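Bump. Still looking for 2-keto-3-deoxy-phosphogluconate aldolase structure tokens.
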Amino acid sequence: MSDESVTEAVVRSGVVAVLRAPTADAFAAVSDVLVEAGITALEVTLTSRGALEAIAGLRRRLPATVAVGAGTVLTLDDAKAAVDAGAAFLVSPVWVPALDGFEVPVYPGAFTPTEIFNAARGGAPLVKLFPAGTVGPRFLKDLRGPLPGVRIMPTGGIEIADIATWLTAGAAAVGLGGPLIGDAASGGSLAQLAVRARRAVDAVAFARS
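Sorry for the wait, here they are.
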């Protein structure tokens, strides 16, 4: 996918599933469930042991329409290793200026209006509002007035029940980790994961209807 189509796939999904666990051993099975439910943007965090191998495996395993990226990217070396493994996009909890203009889309983390503006001015096609749960959807709605051209992806502290509220407040997509994945990446129920994933997809459809 081109850089633009990668970001559009993320936005179209509405939910970016954040895969974080002590090891990435179960990420393939978890991803199958998520994609089957309709979530087509997956973020594999580099803090999970075996993350790079998991990214490479998911790129081979999943349809080309699924955007597989790397999360918790903090350095240029992280970024290069993730792209070499096949990551189509990169996500960071902070703005890393060294990654501005990188070869794949980078979605940096920011919290204040100034940080969000600077990240977008650096070329970020999406800015990750993090930790979003600290401020809530009203904060995003207030940002949309002075920064209408910045596409924002709230992440952190968002529950499945909050998805529609964030999207109607102006979020381009939302990132969900624990509330969506639960314990499925550490040996928990894939059946329960499927239920949560369908609820998340339904919430996106409701917000956009």
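Residues 190-208 form the longest helix (19 residues).

Edit: fixed formatting.
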